[in-house]
Every structure is written in structure tokens, then in C-alpha cells.
Amino acid sequence: MELSIITLTLNNLEYTKKYIDSLYRYTKDFELIIVDNASTDGTIDYLEKLRLEKNNIKIIYNEENKGFSKGNNQGIEIAEGEYIGFLNNDILLSPEWFEKIKEVFIKENAAFASPRHINPNYNLTNEHSYIEYFEHFQYDKPYEKSFDECEFSCVITKREVLDKIGTFDENYTPAFFEDNDFKYRAILGGYGVFVVNTACFFHFGSTTSIKYNGNFEDNRAYYYSKYPFAEYLSVTGEEKGKLKLKARHFDNFPLNIIYKIYLYWYKFKKFIKKRFL
Predict the structure, then answer these.
(1) Residues 84 and 70: beta-carbon distance below 8 Å
(2) Cis peptide leading into 228, omega within 30 of 0?
(3) Residue 213 lies in a domain
(4) Is residue 268 part of a domain?
(5) In the predicted structure, residue 247 carries a pLDDT above the cut 90
(6) Residue 222 lies in a domain
(7) Under a CB-based contact definition with an 8 Å cutoff, are residues 203 and 126 in contact?
(8) Which domain does 166 fall in, by range?
(9) Domain with 101 in it: what CATH number?
(10) Where are the beta strands (DSSP E) in 101-185?
(11) Structure pTM?
(12) Residue 234 has what pLDDT?
């Protein structure tokens, strides 16, 4: 099996159905691993029916919401593909999207690569016209390095990359900043992080994670306590050597300590507010 695709579900059945239709229309030779984080809206019945119809599906049912990092790690454990994709259940794909991403891994020392992100919140298109809309875009290169534009709503990596840099950090829960952590570790490991200019995906937009915005600040503080120099990454990403140079420049100014203090203070305030207010 060349490609394993891992998708988490937590309700939003209408989006999952559209995603599944798009996935099977535009993707060849893959196994689909679905990790359900305790859906209650009919998603489980739909997935069981899907399992009977398709011969390339594995499903993990969690009794509670394990979060984005833990859910994807569960999928990684049973994935058999050389390439592993993390795809949201609220996206739509474009023709030959994986084939175009695969070219990056053949030519570059890549850790992650994703198609261009099309979002109806800032792109003048919709779920019916996004492919035609994207065809009008002109890029100088078929792909390029980009820390920010490599989107974990639809991203591909390789098993050998995960063997070297590890899997998702499950301290990010239930969502936010786990993708930046992963990309940063990849750069420190000497890999490149890419966005592909010849394929796109349409993202309905944070239909699940928007419910967990309260964890955003906790996860951000944890991220910078681990990687105090991560905020200096440019949109195109820094190379490993540049990051190490910046680390030496800041040896006498321990940003990681500052962020850890902030993290503890934030959690303390949150506890007091919950306990007494």
C-alpha cells in the first residue's frame, strides 16, 4: 500500500459525506483510516455502512474525544502506507492532488507537503467552482518551501520522516499548534516543508476545532515554551542552520523560561476563574 490517509471525525456528518465523495473521486490506490472521536449525529452509522461498501477502510471508534494529536497517532499506529496523509473531514480535493505532492518527495528532502489552500472565507469561490477558480492562479514554481502555507488540513508525509522526528505531541489538546510543532521539528531535523502550487484543496473551515478556541492560548504557551525561537520563522521557513544561529544569539535571554512562566500563570488564572467565579 503506497498511501495511508488518516481522517478524524467528530460529528459534522454532512461535511464528512462530501469529503468521502471527493476523496474517492480524486485519489487512487490508498487505504483510509478513520478515527471517530465519539460522534453522536449519525456519523457512526454512516461509517459502518461505508465499511461494508469499501474494501480499503479501517475505523477506530473512541468512546470520548481524544483530540487531534492523539487521534492521528492512533491512525499512524495501524497505517501501512509508505506515504501518510492527514486530511480533515471538512475538505474537498482536486484531480491528481497526491501525484503532484508525491513529486516533491521524489525531488526534495521533504517532511511535509500540502496543496494550496482554498477557503471560502477569503477566496471568491465555493465548493462547486473551486477547481476552476484555482486554475486561474499562476505560480512561477510547481512547489515551494513555506512553513505557514503547508496546511495540516490536508498534508502528506512519509513513514521514514515520522520514524526520525516522531509523531504528534499529544500535550496539544484537543487542537491548535500541534501542526506548527510538527513542522518545526521537521526543520530542526534537516527536512523541508512545502506547499504545492499545482494542486489545491477546498476547506469549509474549522468546523470542529472552532469549538475548542479556549485551548488556543494554553497550546500557544506550551509551543513557545518548547521552541522559543519558533516565532522567528518567516513565511517561507528557516533552515536548520539559521535556527541554530538564532538560538546561540539568544542564549543569554531564555525565552523558553518566560513562556513557561506565562503558561503556568495562564493556567492558574483559568483555575481561579473556574473555581471561584
Answers:
(1) no
(2) no
(3) no
(4) no
(5) no
(6) no
(7) no
(8) 3-208
(9) 3.90.550.10
(10) 110-118, 143-145, 154-158
(11) 0.85
(12) 46
